[in-house]
Here is the input.
Amino acid sequence: MRKAILIYNPHSGLATRKRKKQMSEFTKYSDLFQEYGYQVEIYQTNYHGHAREIVKNLPSDIDLVISVGGDGTFNEAMTGNFEREQRLLISHLPYGTTNDIGTMYGLGKNLYRNLDMILSGNVVNTDICMLNDHPFIYVAGFGKFMNIAYETSRKMKKKIGKLAYLILGVKDFFQQKTPSYEITYEVNGEKYHGLYTFALISNANRIAGINNFYKNIKLDDSQFEVLFCNLQKKKDIVRSLIYLKTNDITKVPGFYFHRTDHITITFHEKLKKPWCLDGEEYNTSTNRFEIKIVKNVQMLLPKKAIAKLFVAGGEEDELSVGNGENHQE
Here is the structure.
């Protein structure tokens, strides 16, 4: 029988009795793992960065790792996977407040149903973006609003959920000054220079809780999306947000869009706030950043996500995990 590791973050999501009960029942999910030919071992994270350490130090004979938590928990697990000599097959069960990644993969709120969809899914080769050799799964950003994800307190998120982000976002918006950064960046053989208030680098169709943020996104097309903004006045930002309701974000005035497989960004001064990677704070002392793609990172995903998000469209059936009866060793 194959070996699976389930790593869960007990601090993710709303602190309700129902969710706490679900977490305590993870041990009961072993029957479902067995149906698919896995013996599962369950780990609980105890501190920030623990999921990264767990995955990094797992033995090489592990057949599947599943992180359970928010987007940041999955980023930790993926980071630990990249620090290994040989990467393991990985997947993710959403259990946070926003769950952009899980929603993008077609997963809902029922953990058992999500787990069943994952274990009956297919293995696919996906692109993973790297920021100065640090992986991020769906989005990295700096500047205006980027601090909201990691500065919203865990206690507040547990108490009121997504509303916590909105409260901090409104507070951030009505600050008197919107800081801008002097930046030089090179992309697709061209060099640009200017003042920008924020930027998003992503490989996703859902960002900040917004579905279809970009159209026709594929996670294995060797490209990611880059969006710079130079708007500083609040009225211009509001006008752009209204414009977004009926228009493609890549065509909104004040936004500059690129699709590429490589970009370098150089700041002419120190960042006032850290980068945000998959909703988590990323501190670094450098002022030059290189973003590129690592291809063919294996993930186990629900079949409906593969059909929608991958160029192959689910054609990699030879990698399908299938059911336990056919695939037990």
